[in-house]
């Protein structure tokens, strides 16, 4: 681990909930666990709490290290820590693994208490609204009536947005980063390709791969490869790999073994992911993305949805992000303006595509730091 | 069939070549077949011949119908026919299936005469330069010393470009549509995902699926789905599908069966393709795309490559094409200008993405018609 500006060693905690959770799909979870981490201290007035919502393949471990020997910190360590934009000297930060996840919260890899067997593919299709309800239950448990801010990027931004509509009294600020009010057909298509890759892997076994002691690794790796390419910009890939060849040259290669650097990189990324992530969870998370539509309960009008909110908003996008393009963030901003809600919008020049929301891009960090400084001035 | 402006019923022909063809990879094809179609009449001076080069999944059947009962004409029937931009009242049009293809020309689905067995995955990795050599052999066979024009879109555009460098004396005009001087890392990455999808299908059998009487249909379908999504623009998909759901609504769906129109469309496209195309050919074609680099033999300098050419050029791109973006076509145009070659460039506003090059977009057809009219004035 590296000590510099780090929250240091952190330990995940588990909250068990016995009260049934009614889900948007019509089913009910009678009990569930949420695994979460906290960074910083909750103040006496409980006014400094920030909720971090994770994206497709994220989890609760957003900052710090789980042990002295860990070399990689949590997934948003660039933003969360003492003196960092989400300053743990100021804020009490809560980060959880969502329901349906595969990092400790109840999901397809958990045992269904009613059957004594793995949930597997039978875990209910949770949606963004369900996550927000479960996060509200966690807030209750932690004694947090009102979040100073709910923050998320990508699918996490959808959760932040949903919070503002679903619990308008329970958050003061809402930070929506690299997100959209709903997925485009193109995004749904890429998600469907990922699901098809997993489901057509013979080791998927209709989702019961764990009982068969196997894993749809090839399908999951393919799904990750598709995701990975689409989260990067064309420029970012060009800068990172160009047309570099692993060895030799195209022109002097007699057999078919020419291999570009980008190919071996992708295969490595896919293979790593396929051993670390659960296939049923991946399917569930992409479905939650597909189904999200902030305006669905408002006759398709996002202005009506946002008119019910009470938070102040920051919307952030990245210039080369083509899966959640600046245009989609401007749609959010424009709907908020039309709904007469206070909103700031920052479009960050960045070569990194959708992945930029996880990167330490100076202007991005500056925007977050300034905005969170303003929240502290307002609330603390 | 529809008679309107059609070349009518056409019959493919096969040309057999006995002279060995030395390939860029170092191997030699001792004999091969090319299947081709022709439309219009070769004039006495043999000055009105046009070569059409096909793209990744294309073939020789570019225009007209194979029978009265055929409902869909050849793949570029919008452009080729009497009175159409490539006017068969004026030009003699030649369209072939490339070496390595799966529509009649020698390729992985052919018998290797030296072994008496299917070529399968052992068919040599042909490259764009090899195709051009084989097309030159076909030109010799047809008595065509000089093409009035060589025309192609996408991978076909690479062949047209290569013709101008490899046989500068054998073409007067070169039309390069929605193409690039080499593939970007992102494009190589999408091709690699397609190959991985095919190769990780257990029915691929290391390429020997035909001997095993099976087919990697799932992998090939996935590969096609990836291609299909990336050939369309985000806008085109939004216009075509939006977030339409096949039946019912997301909000009132109790189980996990919500399905967007775009999903069933993609699955249908993938499944259709997987029964009509050969997996080894798909891998070979994507490799040919990846390996193409017009500047490779010129120290990486495309200006030096184009300085050796003698043709006049038309370069065309489409505004929403993100796999072969207008930027890539401007690079071709700028290199031609720097090489002091005569070039016209048209950037067509079109919502259809890369697929636009196959579509009847009025300004696109107008540009082609005007340019081919100019060629006729010049040569005929």
TrEMBL record, chains A, B:
Enzyme Commission code(s) on record: 2.3.1.46
Keyword RNA-binding: no
An annotated Gene Ontology molecular function: homoserine O-acetyltransferase activity
Cross-referenced InterPro entries: AB_hydrolase_1, AB_hydrolase_fold, HAT_MetX-like
Recorded metabolic or biological pathway in which this protein acts: Amino-acid biosynthesis; L-methionine biosynthesis via de novo pathway; O-succinyl-L-homoserine from L-homoserine: step 1/1
Entry annotation: catalytic residues: 154, 321, 354
Site features described as Important for acyl-CoA specificity, chain residue numbers: 323
GO BP, sorted A to Z: homoserine metabolic process; methionine biosynthetic process
Top-level taxon of origin: Bacteria
GO cellular component assignments: cytoplasm
Localization annotation: Cytoplasm
Listed Pfam families: Abhydrolase_1
Reaction(s) catalysed by this chain's protein: L-homoserine + succinyl-CoA = O-succinyl-L-homoserine + CoA
Binding positions (substrate): 224, 355
Major localization listed first in the record, in broad terms: cytoplasm
Keywords (A to Z) from UniProt: Acyltransferase, Amino-acid biosynthesis, Cytoplasm, Methionine biosynthesis, Transferase
Alphabetized NCBIfam families for the sequence: homoserO_Ac_trn, PRK00175.1
Subunit structure: Homodimer.
Family as reported in the entry's similarity comment: Belongs to the AB hydrolase superfamily. MetX family.
Function of the protein: Transfers a succinyl group from succinyl-CoA to L-homoserine, forming succinyl-L-homoserine.
Protein name (record): Homoserine O-succinyltransferase
């Amino acid at each position: 681990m590296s000590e510099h500006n780090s929250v240091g060693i952190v330990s995940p905690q588990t909250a068990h909930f016995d009260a049934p959770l009614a889900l948007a799909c019509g089913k009910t979870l009678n009990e569930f666990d949420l695994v979460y981490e906290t960074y910083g201290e909750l103040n006496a007035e409980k006014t400094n709490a920030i909720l971090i919502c994770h994206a497709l393949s994220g989890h609760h471990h957003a900052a710090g290290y789980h042990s002295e020997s860990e070399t990689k910190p949590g997934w948003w360590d660039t933003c969360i820590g003492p003196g960092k934009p989400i300053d743990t000297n100021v804020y009490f930060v809560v980060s959880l693994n969502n329901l349906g996840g595969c990092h400790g919260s109840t999901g397809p890899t958990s045992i269904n208490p009613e059957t004594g067997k793995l949930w597997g593919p039978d875990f209910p299709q949770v949606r963004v609204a369900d996550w927000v309800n479960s996060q509200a239950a966690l807030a209750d448990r932690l004694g947090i009536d009102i979040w100073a801010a709910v923050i998320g990027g990508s699918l996490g931004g959808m959760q932040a947005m949903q919070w503002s509509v679903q619990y308008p009294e329970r958050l003061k600020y809402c930070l929506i980063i690299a997100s959209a009010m709903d997925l485009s057909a193109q995004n749904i298509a890429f998600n469907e390709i990922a699901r098809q890759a997993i489901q057509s892997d013979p080791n998927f076994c209709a989702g019961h791969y764990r009982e068969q002691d196997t894993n749809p690794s090839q399908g999951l790796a393919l799904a990750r490869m598709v995701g990975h390419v689409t989260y990067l910009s064309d420029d970012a890939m060009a800068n990172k790999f160009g047309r570099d060849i692993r060895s030799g040259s195209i022109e002097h290669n007699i057999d078919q073994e020419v291999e570009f650097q980008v190919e071996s990189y992708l295969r490595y990324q896919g293979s790593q992911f396929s051993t670390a992530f659960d296939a049923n969870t991946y399917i569930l998370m992409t479905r939650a993305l597909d189904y999200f539509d902030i305006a669905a309960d408002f006759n398709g009008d996002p202005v009506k949805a946002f008119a019910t909110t009470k938070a102040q908003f920051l919307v952030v996008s990245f210039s080369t992000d083509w899966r959640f393009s600046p245009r989609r963030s401007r749609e959010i901003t424009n709907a908020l303006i039309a709904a007469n809600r206070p909103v700031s919008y920052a479009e960050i020049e960045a070569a990194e595509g959708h992945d930029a929301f996880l990167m330490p891009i100076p202007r991005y960090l500056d925007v977050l730091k300034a905005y969170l400084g303003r929240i502290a001035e307002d609330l603390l």
